[in-house]
Amino acid sequence: MSELLMSMEYDQNGRSQALDIALASNFFSSVSSYPLTSPSPFVLSFKDLTYSVKIKNMFNPLPCCGSSDGDGMEMNTKILLNGISGEAKEGEMMAVLGASGSGKSTLIDALANRIAKESLHGSITLNGEVLESSLHKVISAYVMQDDLLFPMLTVEETLMFSAEFRLPRSLSKKKKQARVQALIDQLGLRNAATTVIGDEGHRGVSGGERRRVSIGIDIIHDPIILFLDEPTSGLDSTSAYMVVKVLQRVAKSGSIVIMSIHQPTMESKGNPKPNHKKH
Ligand SMILES: Nc1ncnc2c1ncn2[C@@H]1O[C@H](COP(=O)(O)OP(=O)(O)OP(=O)(O)O)[C@@H](O)[C@H]1O
Question: Chief location of this protein (predicted)?
Answer without folding.
Answer: membrane
